[in-house]
UniProtKB/TrEMBL annotation:
The protein, known as: Homoserine dehydrogenase
Source species of the chain: Ruminiclostridium cellulolyticum (strain ATCC 35319 / DSM 5812 / JCM 6584 / H10) (Clostridium cellulolyticum)
Gene3D superfamilies: 3.30.70.260, Dihydrodipicolinate Reductase, domain 2, NAD(P)-binding Rossmann-like Domain
Enzyme Commission numbers on file: 1.1.1.3
Protein residues bound to NADPH: K100
Statement: the UniProt record of this protein carries the keyword Oxidoreductase: yes
Pfam families: Homoserine_dh, NAD_binding_3
Domain of life: Bacteria
Matching SUPFAM superfamilies: Glyceraldehyde-3-phosphate dehydrogenase-like, C-terminal domain, NAD(P)-binding Rossmann-fold domains
Keyword field: Amino-acid biosynthesis, Methionine biosynthesis, NADP, Oxidoreductase, Sodium, Threonine biosynthesis
One GO BP annotation of this record: threonine biosynthetic process
Length: 414
């Protein structure tokens, strides 16, 4: 029998208790032993909970219980969850988590601590919700040099963008639904400003490139400035706007970025809708491999957490093999040096003059006009590939040298 304690009885924590109970028979068979939730720690009251017999508000109940060998941390955040994770690992208990903020921020130290104490620190649920991606990267694709990763890594923003495009819903209404469905973070700023996707690409990149990638160094832009009009222009060029997280090896450094981007309809990520996430991994031997599934929500995330619990129960004492080294210097290529194509939406008093100005500053461009013109003096153009710093210089020049107002600029993912 393996005894588990769950820290945090929120959406994911309660889902973990539910899955362990519901699938107890098949889980026992797969783990080769029974798995029981002995404690659930939460400071809140849950008088009607089906798990009230094992709920406690006293952390000592969990940490002083020698029968508990696996701690599931589903508190979230990097404060109390960090303290509890260190305490558990130092007490010789393995920890399983869905907490991407903690893994992305303190992963190197926590993996080291797990290794020193001969226990495991597993976090399959921290990226892509129910999609298996951490274990495939660590194990199934281990023979490859990973060239790059491109993904839709946040369910909330993908849900919002899909609802705005398909149903014409407002950003606020779609966000509210994502919150009601249990997809969004407690503070949804982390979702809509791209920080959640940033932490996830940092985790995947750290595994893929065998060195710690600090999310603080990754350029991150959210979806709050994306409008339905932007989506119409994306549609006009045969694409769709997604929050894209990307990382690649580039000249001895790592290029990583999170931002809204237009993906053309032929791109494998273009049809990934609603709460679904997808990750395309390019390895030198395998080529492209794509992983797809529900990226957020109670049971999909619990599915990944419980899989880690089963793994530890099945291989007790196997511990943590690989740790992440922090590099001395920033290993991320500055965003200014990366090359990108942009769709630029503009408005101008005199369109013909504006087009001449754009041509003279940007050189080769492609004009984009909507067939159903919403506003007469509005149009868009696609820049050719420039470094981001060249592009910014040209755009600043355009705005100061003409009567053009830039309404938005959106990267085009290739
Ligand atoms: N808020 C996250 C998302 C939850 O929407 O993807 C899963 O990590």
């Amino acid at each position: 029998m393996v005894n588990v304690a769950i820290l945090g009885y929120g959406v994911v924590g309660s889902g973990v208790a539910e899955v362990i109970k519901k699938n107890s028979e098949s889980i026992s068979q797969r783990a080769g032993t029974d798995i029981k939730v002995k404690w659930i720690l939460d400071i809140r009251d849950f008088p009607d909970s089906p798990d009230k017999d094992v709920l406690t508000k006293n952390a000592d109940d969990v940490f002083n219980d020698n029968e508990v060998s696996i701690i599931v941390e589903t508190i979230g955040g990097a404060k109390i969850a960090h303290e509890f994770t260190k305490r558990a690992l130092m007490a010789g208990k393995s920890v399983v988590t869905s907490n991407k903020e903690l893994v992305a921020t303190h992963g190197p130290e926590l993996l080291q601590l797990a290794k020193e104490n001969g226990v495991s620190y597993l976090f399959e649920a921290s990226v892509g919700g129910g999609i298996p991606i951490i274990r495939p990267l660590n194990q199934c694709l281990a023979a490859n040099e990973i060239n790059g990763i491109t993904g839709i890594l946040n369910g909330t923003t993908n849900y919002i963008l899909t609802q705005m495009k398909r149903e014409g819903k407002s950003f606020e209404a779609a966000l509210k639904e994502a919150q009601q469905n249990g997809y969004a973070e407690q503070n949804p700023t982390a979702d809509v400003e791209g920080h959640d996707a940033c932490r996830k690409i940092a985790i995947l990149s750290s595994i893929a490139y065998n060195e710690f990638v600090d999310c603080e160094n990754i350029y991150t832009e959210g979806i709050t400035k994306i409008t339905v009009d932007d989506m119409k222009y994306a549609d006009a060029i045969g694409g769709v706007i997604k929050l894209i997280a990307v990382s690649k090896k580039a000249n001895g450094k790592i290029f990583a970025r999170v931002s809204p981007a237009i993906v053309l309809n032929e791109h494998p990520l273009a049809n990934v809708e609603d709460v679904f996430n997808a990750i395309v991994v390019n390895g030198d031997a395998v080529g492209d491999a794509m992983f797809y599934g529900r990226g957020a929500g109670k049971l999909p995330t619990a599915s990944a957490v419980v899989a880690d619990v089963i793994d530890i129960a099945k291989h007790p004492g196997s511990g943590t093999a690989s740790v992440w080294e922090r590099t001395q210097q920033n290993n991320i290529l500055p965003i200014e040096d990366s090359t990108t194509k942009f769709l630029v939406r503009v408005t101008a008093k005199n369109k013909e003059d504006a087009k001449k100005d754009i041509l003279s500053i940007f050189g080769e461009i492609q004009l984009v006009e909507l067939h159903s013109k919403v506003k007469d003096n509005e149009f868009a153009f696609i820049s050719c590939k420039n470094t981001e710093s060249e592009f910014k210089t040209k755009l600043d020049k355009l705005e100061s040298a003409s009567d053009i107002t830039v309404l938005n600029r959106i990267r085009i993912e290739e």
